[in-house]
Protein: Ribonuclease J
Amino acid sequence: MSDKLKIMVLGGVREQGKNMFAVQVNDEIFVLDAGLKYPDSSLFGIDVVIPDMEFFKQYGDQVVGIFLTHGHADSIGALPYILRDWDIPVFGSKLTIELAKIDVQRENKRRNNQLFNVIDADTEIDFKNASVSFFHTTHSVPDSLGIVIHAPQGQIVYTGDFKFDPSARPAYRTDMARLAEIAGNGVLALLPDSSNAEAVLPNASENEVGTYITNVFRNAKGRIIVAGKASNLNRVQQVFNAAAATGRRVLLTGRDVAKIVHTAMKLGYLEVPDGLLMKAKELKDVPDEKTVILETGRMGEPLQSLQKMANNRHRMITIHEGDLVFIATTPSHAVETTVAITSDMVYRAGGTVIELGRNMHTSGHATGRDLQTLIDLLKPRILVPVIGDYRLLEAVKDLAVETGMDPDDVYITQNGDCLEYDTKRGQFFRGDAVPGEDTMIDGSGVGDVGNIVLRDREVLSDDGIFIAVVTIDRKKKKIVSEPQVTSRGFVYINANHKLMNDSIQVIKDAIQANFEHKKFDWTELKQDMRSSLGKFLYKQTNRRPVVLPVVMEVNQNRHRAMQKKAEDAAEGNKEKPVKKNNRKKQTRPANKYAKGKKPVNKNKKKDSKADDKR
Structure:
């Protein structure tokens, strides 16, 4: 069998989140991360988006494992949906595996713990065609790892989310010596994190960020409400440190942060002094100047919760005069407008807002200079930028060219691309595409919402729905009852009586036109009603609502047949005449007790009246 090497891009390029990549070595496939992304405003009603599950339907029997870099949703969020149908081993660091179990348990109660395997940076796993090893990286969650696939053709390095910070604590520090060792063995392909490639300023060190947060806490006079990401344990630790240094206690709100914090505490990744955390029932007894409320959200930016607090709709907290809202995470570009709206609500409620990202350049992802350092250190033969929007992938390409790489050796990909290695020529080429579409999760449904449903939802949100109900007699070719029309989200009915009445006549005309056809067809009738109403309503209002025709049929012949059957049954119940015969009847004494009747003692009633008189 000839050696086969493929790099498959399943998600995480030209977008933020949903990271999933795969490397195929002969008949074995190694999946790198399995994340999700949260929908933008155009995906109406969608909860989360995950990579294309069609990939596992086609190649699931070849997948030897899913290898995780860290415990954020963009790397582990798709696991619950994959493990519903496929028993694939999962490999990750101790904390990453525990966070993955929490995620899987939330969506899939029948969690198979035997699929989860804990590894560390010193682990190397041998498979039939390749081996897999790991190295420490710096990110906002401890125990983050990069992954190396050791194929016969060369090493393929996937960084996951990373950055360089020499001052980071040991659990967060990149292993530069290990990177030098990997470089010494030659790197065939590098898949680096691109999500912060445009940054020209260096990231502030985590020591500087910790000092800044402590100063903010020290200068606050009232309550502090911290908005952050539950799985950003580095930031959570800094909040705990600042609260302890300023004599405050911390209340955790939300199940996500409580589970994650307690799991990290149990594993020794968080240091929490005794008495620092308080319960909700203790909140009223702790003075405002001694209170910190840590509010987190699954999207990492709990802006909806802050808005509820500002509008007095939150189940526990209401922002009042003197409160400080500290946004401890750097918001993505997509939600900057929402951050501004939320800040305005907080100020209206009497609070103030401080955003960490406005005062310090901090991120859990590599800057342009970090990426150039990594490229210069590993010297890969080809570069495949991943984890980022298209402009960020292009930014990585420019950075690589500055370090001396040939532009032809940098591949800008899209989801579904497959790079195959030609052993004879010693270079990659674009092969046949693999499944790379989005799988949308709406409630418990996985992939049952497609573009057609989303387009209908978009139209409903823009122009509403118009419903027409009519009953017809197909045999007599007539409308039995006057059509009924109503709408939702289209026009105010009480102010548009003429429009509604005119639409009834349009319905009648469309139905009558169908009656005149020799061959009656229900589909054509509804389509004609939909088309006629759509054109009429657009002409009158310049809007295109979803037109929903409801046509019912009454069959008069069937009705008469049923009525006759009922009359015949009623006639059959009448007493029929008894035929006389010449046989002499046998006389019998009348039986007063027939059919369970009991004798009535008439004298007893009289006696009782007599007794009353007595």
In short: Residues 580-614 have pLDDT under 50 and may be disordered. Residues 579 and 585 are 13 Å apart (CA to CA). The chain has three domains: 5-200+363-446, 206-355, 464-556.
